Amino acid sequence: MAETNENTIQHELKTRHVSMIALGGSIGTGLFLTSGASVSQAGPFGAILAYLIIGIMVYFLMTSLGEMATFAPTSGSFAEYGNRFVDPAFGFALGWNYWFNWAITLAVDTVTVGLVAQFWLPDVPSWIFSAIALFLIFLINLFSVSTFGETEFWLSLIKVVTICFFLFIGVLAIFGIIHSNTDVVRNLSVGQHGFVGGWQGVLSVFVVAGFSFQGTELIGITAGEAKDPRKSVPKAIHSVFWRILLFYIGAIFVISALVYYQDPRLMSAADSGNVMMSPFTIVFKNAGIAFAASLMNAVILTSVLSAANSGTYASTRTLYSLAKKGQAPKIFGRLTKHGVPWASLLLTMCVGLVAFTSEMKGGNVVYGWLVAASGLTGFLAWMGIAIAHLRFRKAYVAQGNDVNDLPYKAKWFPFGPIFALFMSLVVIFLQDPEAFAHWEWDKIAVTYLSVPIFVIPYLGYKWSKKTKVIPLQDVDLTGKNK
């Protein structure tokens, strides 16, 4: 594959691409399938409160990332900011951890594509659909970043249109314009005025909400290839935050109003991934839309493809950033003539092939462990963003700069990143606290496998390279110290 003479990433993502990638990255099966389980666990307003708190946390993370990304736009931002503002060992561990997360996500999503496609063609082996999906994602990411951006724009738009249609139908049903025998007042007032299980119920939904919002940090990755990041990133942050809150809070309210919280179908969708039990499908069918199941299956299929597409993009750019920093083999920093890190893409695709081991003897065990290993990497990335921002702002001021001169200034500093850091730790701990109460080591190992996968590379790199936390006066704000 030919390489660019400059060997630099090309800036081809438009403002609408950046906004839709960030929006689409946070809307997926977490909303379409598991939102019903949240209502069952915490009640209507308990679920809304949990998503609202996590949504605010994500907003602070996005503003933190936005401040750094507009000041120093770079592809593979998390690793780069960790390297420059905290400690090279921190950036090394953060980068490889994030690459691993999205590479495994690609494998998971390609398996899911096969299972979802069997809804229409149950007699066709699922691996055939997985192979087709993997090949298409490879082609989309191979040609140019504009091809990726345009594809992701339309895939995300399908999800957005579906949610808008769902909210429209839901409002009509709530006000009785569409025939419905649903007792809306009864559904919304269950438990203690819409709360079930008290604070424990709300806390239990934090975990689900946290996973649902993962992907919003893609805005930091896209900044390095945006045509005008100082314009597109702030615009994306503000518009995406309000749209996410509207979509999630609005959808959960509609589900709560039209489906009783103890309806067994709400839990079944989360446990089995059954599209027939999706809360969206239930509401559509109750409204008399006969093709509801096929519609939602098609939407879920596009959601999974969108996640796999975005994950491939994020992982290749992260690996590219590591290579340019000398923290990965140099070959992963080479680009095609279209500015695509081809070697990074190939390695990520190889991890995606792990999807096919689930069809082989013993493959499910390997596959299960890989999924477990990537479980908390998204939250670790969020913690990395918060820590990097705290260090960046302190270094910026310590070196005699005025924060009012920043292209984009995060609000409520330092409360924002501190709150995001604290909530990330809370969500991580809440993964399986009972396992610690009884010291069930097998559950602890599966649930928290991501943590040592971050810590061990961090300590190993720190020991081998003798790195230290960078003094504030020596933090590289210009990016010239490569």
Automatic annotation (TrEMBL):
GO terms for cellular component: membrane. Its main location: membrane. It is a multi-pass membrane protein. It comes from the Bacteria. The chain crosses the membrane at residues 20-39, 45-62, 99-121, 127-145, 157-178, 198-219, 240-262, 282-308, 339-357, 369-392, 412-431, 443-461. Keywords: Amino-acid transport, Membrane, Transmembrane, Transmembrane helix, Transport. One of its GO terms (molecular function) is amino acid transmembrane transporter activity. Residues 17-468 form the Amino acid permease/ SLC12A domain. This is Lysine:proton symporter, AAT family (TC 2.A.3.1.2). The lineage of its organism: Bacteria, Bacillati, Bacillota, Bacilli, Lactobacillales.
